[in-house]
Amino acid sequence: MVKQIQETPKTDGLGIAGFIVSLVGLFLPYGMASVVGTILSSVRFHKQKTGLNIAGIVLGIIGIAWKILFWVFVASSIAVL
Description:
This protein is mostly helical. The chain has one domain (13-80). Helices cover 73% and strands 0% of the residues. The chain has 3 helices and no strands. Helix 1 (13-25) runs antiparallel to helix 2 (32-47) and helix 2 packs antiparallel against helix 3. The longest helix has 30 residues, at 51-80.
């Protein structure tokens, strides 16, 4: 009788970390977490294309754009004063 060994699915630690950091970066007042999350997700995306990596990249880009728009608005408000 031959036993078949089933492999457990490998977890995607870098992709999960990139997604979580990008998600947290949306709510932090500074944009560095979004940048780090985008980099982590992009590095893992080139090795394994999963939905979690894509979501981390998209959330990171949204977070970066949100922070840029926020600081442009703040700078323009200060310039008006």
